[in-house]
Specification:
alpha+beta; 5-stranded antiparallel sheet; globular
């Protein structure tokens, strides 16, 4: 019976509206663009971040335009959506976004993963930020 209940809970969670990158009222609650600052320090130093609530994790990348489809395909395997922002010289500024509950370990792992992906594709990973809805009074 436990397995059936867990499956039903998963289905119910998908049906209920949740946080999306398009949710109105999102604000940046943490940002990490300095590789010398640990992700744990970034999150610990953010009074606006709610550690138990989902957040939109947004990685800022510069990628060659001819490698965007490849990057989108790779990132989609882990639930990321790649969104073009602007052209910056020979590279395109993009955001890799997904919703998740943040913790320092996963932020550090994902930052490293994005850096490796960007490097393999001839680009650069600039950093990440996290967005959550404005707190309600």
């Amino acid at each position: 019976m436990g397995l059936v209940n867990r499956l039903l809970n998963l289905v119910k969670k998908r049906e209920s509206p949740g946080l999306t990158p398009e949710t109105p009222g999102l604000e940046i609650v943490a940002e990490a663009f300095d590789p010398a600052v640990a992700d744990s320090a970034v999150l610990a130093g953010s009074p606006a971040w709610v550690s138990t609530a989902p957040a939109v994790l947004r990685h800022h990348l510069l990628l060659p335009p001819d490698r965007l489809a490849e990057a989108a395909s790779i990132l989609a395997q882990d639930g990321y959506d790649l969104r073009e922002q602007a052209v910056s010289g020979d590279l395109t500024r993009v955001h890799a976004v997904r919703v998740q509950v943040l913790d320092a370990l996963h932020c550090a792992q994902e930052r490293s993963r994005m850096a490796g992906l960007a490097q393999r594709l001839g680009g650069d990973a600039l950093g990440w930020d996290a967005l959550q809805p404005e707190p309600t009074a």
